[in-house]
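U., I forgot to send this yesterday:
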Amino acid sequence: MGRKVIRGDISLHKIPFQFQSQYVWTIQLFIVLPNGIRKQLGMISEPTSIREPWNFAFNFDDEHTPDGVGHYGIRVEVLDGTVVVADADQSFSIAWHNDAPSFQQLVLEPQAI
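Result:
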């Protein structure tokens, strides 16, 4: 138990359009309990220009997470106001090895153009 790190990168290779300066991106990290309930562990959100490589990292203390975590999930959204223009969603299990970080790769998919 202790500090855990989940790092990752997000590929834009499937996006057929240029991101606009008014877009806001969010990345959410959550755990999924065996009963299906999601609990958010962290969120990053800010307006920015998005270019590859697009990297992120979450640092959290797993002593504050409930026992019996089914798996983890990451949800990425790129928003134009309230419209999702691109997103990625990934669920995964982690076999933690001491303090070694977990690395996840996501691919943004276009939604609304």
